[in-house]
Design goal:
The protein is α/β, with parallel strands linked by helices. 37% of the residues lie in helices and 20% in strands.
Amino acid sequence: MDGGGRNVGPVGAEGPFGGQGPLGPAAGTVASVRASLAARLRRITPPGRRSRLANPIERRIPRHLGTAGFSLSFAALALAGFVGSGAYDRFVAEHGRPLDIAARIAGFGVERVTISGIARLYEREVLQAAGIDGHSSVVFLDVAEARERLLAVPLIASASVRKVYPNEIVITQVEREPAALWQRNGEIAVIAADGTVIDQMRDDRYAALPLVVGDDANLKLKDYLALIEAAGSLAERVKAGTYVSGRRWTLKLDGVDIRLPETGATEALARLVKLERDNRILEKDIIAVDLRMPDRVVVRLTEEAAAARAESQKKSKPKGTST
């Protein structure tokens, strides 16, 4: 080579792999170059690896691999279609999850559920809330998820769920105590003592609770219950209380509206108790008693009573003398 790294030897000099140079007339053919490369690879490749590489590719692929791959692909497509068509959901609804089915066959199905702390809820409502039914299994029941589902029920304040193998689930719960019913916009809800809505009025299990009506009446429940207590002998006759304009109460008592003042409502009720004791005012043909003024009582008669009173007053007037 010269100083610039160029090969200045004769064109017919031997190449790096033996034989003639690649450019000379006796340089050999492309086949000789390939043979030289193959010989060099054989010298640097371990014998074991050379024997594997020498095998045809069809010998190195496990037998039936293509058949297995096709079968798996077909099964995956069939499963996707089964799930996507809704058939899987229907199957689970009718028979349960496959894991639960296997657990039930093995003898770990849920055969008994013990529930403690039930006061207002029904057993079926607790089971439905927890997600437990005849398709469930003890092994694969997620107790943490069941507990969270129970706590999502407004009437349940706390809950615990545990497994007793092989076939029992134990649920312990504490229910919030309902204090009253709250009617607003035509709907009735069950509320706790602090006014929190804990359930909806769905049947007559809450029918005996006090009833408050109107916006924010739930937040004034404590005041209403104090009025009921102050009503004394009339307390059992109070059917509902309406919170009017966010300022005062009107009590519904035997079909009669008792309009109480914004302040001094307890004293006004004491006056009503005395009037009923002395005059049986609530047994008369009236539809309202207005106690908002401290120095007087205004009574509104029924339409029939008002008409009869007007007729009576006409008859009682002295007849005019003719002139």
